[in-house]
Batch of 2 targets.
Target 1
Amino acid sequence: MYLPNKRPENMQRINTPELAEAFINEQVALVREQVGDKKVLLALSGGVDSSVVAALLIKAIGKQLVCVHVNHGLMRKGESEQVIEVFQNQLDANLIYIDATDRFLDLLKDVSEPETKRKIIGNEFVKVFDEEASKLKGISFLAQGTIYPDIIESDGVKAHHNVGGLPEDMQFELVEPVRLLYKDEVREVGRALGLPRGMVDRQPFPGPGLGVRCLGAITRDRLHALREADAILREEFDKAGLTDKVWQFFTVVPDFRSTGVKNGKRAFDWPVIIRAVNTVDAMVCTVPEIDWAVLKKITDRILAEVSGVCRVLYDLSPKPNATIEWE
Ligand code: XMP
């Protein structure tokens, strides 16, 4: 390992394209020195950290990097497609795409307890990744998108990545090129590497994904409604210039129905809840006052375009007392 465990006191904050460029050149040289002609494996979720590490390593070692993207079926609309488009089609990466949707959704069937859902998703993720890794030959290194807050806050474990516990017999040396960087610096490096804005400036997205927003026991139809409603929310927030102004926003679909009327007939459909928060540290949050016209447009679109939904609600609860996620 060529990087120290502690960020040197005189290390400059990477906040300009020039500084990002210099960092990239330095890391490219270090990674080449560390890895030589060996192969490196990376679990590429499509989140900011793993995407920046992937782009950096592609620049440094090209096809010696093997990226594995596991789609657990709980991604937002278009996310796995974007990973494939950017890394396979544009950056010509060595990318293995695994659609494990059925495995995850079958295991989650009838499971309603939130922490059990999280455990199932986390464990299965490691299992799928390990199975894939053990099929590959000649891998010597494991790359990780560990960033400095992971080191300070959780003992160097990439806490929000579901890849935590690799089995004992899989002992790789780690490659962690952004481990001394703060999140804003990782984003600056990502921009300098030419990654799309939507990927670099992405809002936080929990490892269990839509799994904790499709409340209670996940069903495929409710998950579909959630994904479509979330895509509409993101599209309309973007059009209204809110994407950079609101810290995190998403939809939630609870596991109950309410009465409605559709085409003159009585319906019994799900509500969609819109959740939006502003915060500095995710510990204390306020709820932004979204323009009524924007909320109305989103409501109209969700009711018209998403089947199985008859109501749209806006969650007005700050944290505390509410948490950001609903479960
Ligand atoms: P809460 O709901 O605790 O969320 O106010 C605080 C932040 O953490 C995210 N979050 C998670 N991230 N795995 C994750 O990787 C999880 O299980 C998880 N639960 C919550 C949440 O999206 C918010 O940004």
Target 2
Amino acid sequence: MQKVIDGETLEIPQHIAIIMDGNGRWAKKKHMPRGYGHKAGAKVIEQICDDADKLGIKYLTVYAFSTENWKRSVEEVTGIMNLLRFYLKDSVERASKNNMRIRVIGDKNALDKDIQDLINDAEEKTKHFDGFNFTIALNYGGRDEIKRAVQKISSKVKNNELDPEMIDEQTISNELDTAELPDPDLLIRTSGELRLSNYLIWQLAYTEFYFTDVLWPDFDMNELKNAIKYYNGRDRRYGGVK
Ligand code: IPE
Ligand code: IPE
Ligand code: MG
């Protein structure tokens, strides 16, 4: 889909994935505790959802908590989980207003039971909305996701439901948490780090990468537009010749 942004006709990526990084450094710069940064970051997510929807982006998938983030202090992890509870509680109402479908990817089993219930509720109550697809990666790790997919495929083989010869790339994609989502067209990582940190490692095979030094709580519509402008300057060849 094309759209005129600031006088320029631009191709709008269908699916944008974001590694929202830099909350801690943002708080530190303000001489505040890390939790202050996470709170500010959570507000930005809501705004960026609206902005992405306005720009015509169909899918937005954000990295909220990785399988490695449990290494942080109990205080920080508890703070992030409480923000999540807060977000999920009023997400259904927001989603209804914006025709937004909410999904959560990652291993939900390790989360507190009340958070699992809030997730199930949000997913169930928004599943018929088809305007905008918002996906939160929570206790998500790309390697963990592939491990779980391999386990599901192996048990199908064991039960004679699947012939190993018939396993192709689509079989694997279908068993990932992202089975219902197209692969991202554009990945954005804030805060200047140039790594994937275990995010969507299968799905990002042919995605364009945009890195910015802006810390996540400072990310806004203007930054999102900059990322889309950058995307428009890329030549996606998928291994072919153009
Ligand atoms: C990203 O910000 C949010 C999460 C990982 C939950 P960080 O908390 O990683 O912030 P920095 O990287 O320490 O600045
Ligand atoms: C990646 O950020 C995870 C999220 C944004 C949720 P991290 O801050 O955890 O990544 P590293 O530790 O810098 O690689
Ligand atoms: Mg970080």
